[in-house]
Design a protein that fits this description.
Elements lengths: L1 H14 L12 E4 L10 E4 L3 E5 L5 E8 L13 H15 L3 H10 L25 E7 L12 E8 L4 E8 L2 E9 L6 E7 L5 E8 L5 E5 L2 E7 L10 E9 L4 E4 L3 E7 L1 E10 L6 H13 L3 H16 L3 E3 L9 H7 L7 H17 L25 E2 L3 H5 L13 H22 L9 E2 L11 H4 L4 H16 L2 H21 L1 E2 L6 E2 L10 E2 L14 H21 L4 H10 L23 E2 L25 H14 L5 H13 L3 H11 L15 E2 L5 E2 L5 H15 E2 L5 E3 L10 E8 L3 E8 L2 E8 L4 E7 L2 E7 L4 E4 L4
Parallel strand pairs: 27-31
Antiparallel strand pairs: 1-6, 2-3, 3-4, 4-5, 5-10, 6-7, 7-8, 8-9, 9-16, 10-15, 11-12, 12-13, 13-16, 14-15, 17-28, 18-19, 20-21, 22-23, 24-25, 26-27, 28-29, 29-30, 30-33, 31-32
Helix pairs in contact: 2-3, 7-18, 9-11, 9-12, 11-12, 11-13, 12-13, 16-17, 16-18, 17-18
Amino acid sequence: MRNIRFFAVFSFFILLACKKEAPDTNLTLWYSSPAKQWEEALPLGNGRLGAMVEGGISRDNITLSEISLWSGSEEDTSNPEALKYLPEIRNLLQEGQNLKAQELMYKYFKCKGDGSGLGNGANDPYGCFQYLGNLYIDYNYPVSEKSDTIANGYRRSLSLKNAIANSDFELDKVTYSREYFVSHTNDVIIIRITSSKAQALNFNVSLDRQERANLLCENDMLYMGGQLNNGTDGFGMKYLVQTKVISNDGKITSNSTAIHVKDATSALIFVSAATDYKKTNYMNDVNDIIDKAQELTYEELKENHIKNYQEKFNRVSVDLGEGDYSIPTDERLKQFQTKDDPSMAALYFQFGRYLMISGTRENSLPLNLQGLWANTIQTAWNGDYHLNINIQMNYWPVEVANLSELALPLVEFTKELVPSGEKTAKSFYNADGWVAHVITNPWKFTAPAERASWGATNTGGAWLCSHLWEHYAFTKDVEYLAEIYPVLKGASEFFLSNMIKEKKHGWLVTAPSSSPENSFKLPGTDEPVYVCMGSTMDMQIIRELFMNTLEASTILSEGDDNFLAKIKETLPLLAPMQVSEKGGYLQEWLEDYEETDPRHRHVSHLYGLHPGNLITDTKTPELMEACRKTLERRGDEGTGWSRAWKINFWARLKDGNRAYKLFRNLLKPTTEKQIAMDTGGGTYPNLFCVHPPFQIDGNLGGCAGIAEMLIQSHDGYIDILPAIPDNWKTGSFNGLKARGGVEVDAYWKNHKVTKVVLRSPEDQEIRLKVNNKMQTIIMEGGKDKVLSEVE
């Protein structure tokens, strides 16, 4: 009876195929042709499973991914030589002999083994995030000899509102429609294929993977499974993909490599997959997921998926003005460089929220460099977790964009790094607490990487701690704060026990360290030097860590008086931020060295401006000006994520027009796929950000930058429209979040705010800045506060 009901409802939906719901004009990406490369495909995901849909006419390629599919394994990275040479390295740095210290670092102060394999660690113990495989749907059309075989009316689209992709076209007077989604409720990939003419569908379904894949077809079910390389004996993570096809009228057969569908009017394809990462019954799980999905009608599957997805997505709406929605998104992207289209920022912001909801979820791994989506075995930079900005940038929008629970994968991941970080602290520095450097993976790598030029920075874990604190700042969840306090304390203990006094001023500094990936010149030499003491970014992060740890201890009434006293006496001794006497810019290092590349993509020493809050209008106006001069020197170019960071910088400087210029720069169309470390950033046709190649941090950093232009709350008050550009003349937003857990709606006309609605989870007093006027608002928990006549 269940199957009869299934196909009855299914057939009803086929009849409605030509009466589709009208798309929400600025929440849809659409294209007039199939994707020609992966960077044009449309991303789908439910935080665990991912799919990139190309929408080809004769062959539809769907690239599959699973968030935990990693090669590699846990390894012992301890290197006794590092601790042995640490005193000598520090002495050389104290004497200004950074180059000699760097030589020792390259030779001795690094992890045991090959580390990341210089970003090519797929077959090393470090490992690599890899794609799961490809699902191919090969079509045979009943096209008459006289028919033009070129499809008419082709449209490929992605609804951000529903998290559903479609491709539709007409061929030989038959309309073919496909609908794709990755269920947020049933945890399975679902593809519905229909034709307007009875029994016009003939296609084959197959799976493949570049390596380590075994195929099996049994009882008309297609399986692909294998085991990745762990970097030692070859027996690493296991995975399984299972595919099933259902049709109400077509004939389904199979051979050893494919499922064949003949003379069908409609069909459903289910794809389930899992790995054995933290799972023992993953194979049973894969089968059970498909079995449970089949118990529901297509209508129920789709409705449940949309409802689950929209519970998060519909929390926020943004209107920044009208746009030209009548042209394909790739053409609109090109026009955006010369034609004003303020609604592109709203689309991009919501695309960022879409990627976050689709790319991660509670009780899963956090977003990596690729988010959830990859199409290779050797993903660029192993698709890992870079802790010197990239994974952090992925999570900049999560709180303000009202997706707070999606911060939890990063919180849990950070907590799981602590045991490994404690071993690293002891073995490399003989220090207390825990530390993480620049790169990490699901195997909890925390050691210095294999190259000191980029692997020496030791504040990666402390930077993660800022996200743990921000989650509290936005939620005011004291029970959560008690859970993460030991992590903050352990990170603080590392620096309290590991910093040294530099000789010139007696300041406490990190040593050795670096300013991420940037280099300077010592007097008399042009050789790039990376290794230093007390980079500006290091000291900003440590100061922020200490301040957050102190505040947390006060809120929780923690009683470790000796530890708290140590932080209090250390804070004034930390190396301060300095302004260059030569150029008035913020110094990147303790000394005002000459940069090897003044326009370097990293602008790490402005961490205190963003994402930190040490540099603000009210606290340090003179440093705000120094930051402005720094950004002018750096320029507006760079890789994708670098341009995104600069949007946030200029928003914090309250320069909306410059921030918008950087946003337009971020959206520069490109198809470049070759690695380019300093230039070449922009946006692919599917709106993926280009490093190049693709990195999701630019998308999410750009999303955060748009939010910073609309609302800020890092300086002790909520600022509405702090950096609005001239061309966002009239608009609104609903549901953005401010620190303190306050949810905000705002409406404006001719750049003047006309209405504000505030919602607070608890009674509290807040300071609010609207139309450049500060006021104090008394909030009652659970009640809206409406300011309808804003002066």
